[in-house]
Amino acid sequence: MRTRVKICGITRVEDARAAADAGADAIGLVFDPDSPRCVTLEQALAIINSVPPFVTVVGLFVDSPVERVRAVLERARLGLVQFHGAETPEQCRLYGRPYVKAIRMRGGVNLHAEERRYADATGLVLDTYVPGQSGGSGRAFDWGLVPGDLHKPVILAGGLHADNVGDAIRRVRPAAVDVSSGVESAKGIKDPHKIAAFIRAVREAA
Ligand SMILES: O=C(O)c1ccccc1N[C@@H]1O[C@H](COP(=O)(O)O)[C@@H](O)[C@H]1O
Q1: How far is the CA of 135 from the centre of ligand 1 (A)?
Q2: Cys-Cys with 181: which of 62, 133, 138, 146 at CB 3.0–4.6 Å?
């Protein structure tokens, strides 16, 4: 099956367009106030309105208060919610929306247990554990930590870029890849050439 691509941490309409034009399946909007890529609701609405049909807009939250998540979901047309903190399965399903759950990868993580725990998640986002950082670190983890017999779709993240994503896909065989830092010229500012090169590398990986 074709590996899907999500370009995360979009803060500008032109970057959303560049991602869609290059063939991204999804773009991500970060609603975590601690992230340099955090968008306001107004920014989010402008970006969402610029995205063509059939490109999924994913809203990313990190241990956000319920009222904040609800306020965003009420106004913003999001196709999927990404919980990137320590949210429990009960917290993830509070909103009745399809969601993916991030798992911070390091030695000892039991992904079989995690996929049982988040049984109703659409997929697991595997991102690098970096102390003091929730995500978007630009750092890769040891892909050998991902067992080949998971039942849930894996969305591989963490330090991916055009030069390593092909190898990552061949090693892990994820359903999708998720990138933020690796397609940027500065935090929150995407580089259209890097986006295009990344998506090309994904398509060429076999
Ligand atoms: O992008 C962010 O700023 C961010 C902030 C808080 C949690 C997650 C965040 N991004 C996600 O992190 C991974 C890896 O990103 P990177 O390619 O290593 O920069 C990815 O899932 C982003 O969606």
Answers
A1: 4
A2: 138
> How many domains does the structure of the chain reveal?
1
Average pLDDT, the chain: 97
User: Is the beta carbon of 64 within 6 A of some atom in ligand 1?
Assistant: no
Expressed as residue numbers, the domain containing 164 is 4-204
198: CATH = 3.20.20.70
pLDDT of residue 206 exceeding 90: no
Amino acid at 15: D
Is the alpha carbon torsion for 191, 196, 202, 206 positive or negative?
negative
% the chain with pLDDT above 70: 100
- Which residue's CA is the nearest one to ligand 1's atom 4? 136
Average pLDDT estimate for 172-192: 98
